[in-house]
Amino acid sequence: MTTKQLFIDLNGDMGESFGAYRIGHDEELAKVVTSANIACGFHAGDPAVMRRTVKLCLEHGVEVGAHPGLPDLMGFGRRAMQITPEEAYDLVLYQAGALQGFVRAEGGRMRHVKPHGALYNMAAVQRPLAESIAKAVYRLDPELILFGLAGSELIRAAESIGLRAASEAFADRTYRADGTLTPRTDPEAVIRDARQAADQAVRMVCEGKVKSLQGDEVALAADTLCIHGDGPEALALATLIKERLQHAGVAVRPYGI
Asked: Max alpha carbon distance in the chain (Å)?
């Protein structure tokens, strides 16, 4: 009897520096992840950083994606805003289109779009917002893949219009019983112990389950696993997670390839 091969994409948030500020570990992370979500200038990043990060990813064979966020540089895009579905459409199309221009100029092709921070979490539960984001991505390029929280409205909205979607799970974030992420305002939202995060990652991929903060077993099917790039231990965490997954027999490679 043969065992079905498990696959997972490891995506990392990159290109979050801007101006005189340096954030993250892009050069090191590009050697570990298989897909990159590059900030597009609204929550982080700037044109020069976008160009450099695109070039870095292409040099390392990392699949490039846009990471559009809310226009909230001071809050790093993690504060919820009241926006209409039409505004969400414009924000995503504007930012993803800008990054696509940099990718094409460097001779590459953009593979996916993943909303950032509060925009991502809002779209996970608000169907009108999710539909507008999916429509913006589809109209930019129907071959793009939309990354969204596993089991969320964003995944359903993409699938409803024929847009490919990749269900995402988070190694270093805790979950609530309904399958949504614990808000960052909660002190237990982020898992800071690398071994605990790696254990959670392996279980999500191999068993399709995660234990919520409330103690419930939450089922999820993950196509891609997020590795945050802005923490002080980001590189060590990403490396450990990749090693643990491979040791468990999971093939780490870009989604859809």
From this structure: 57
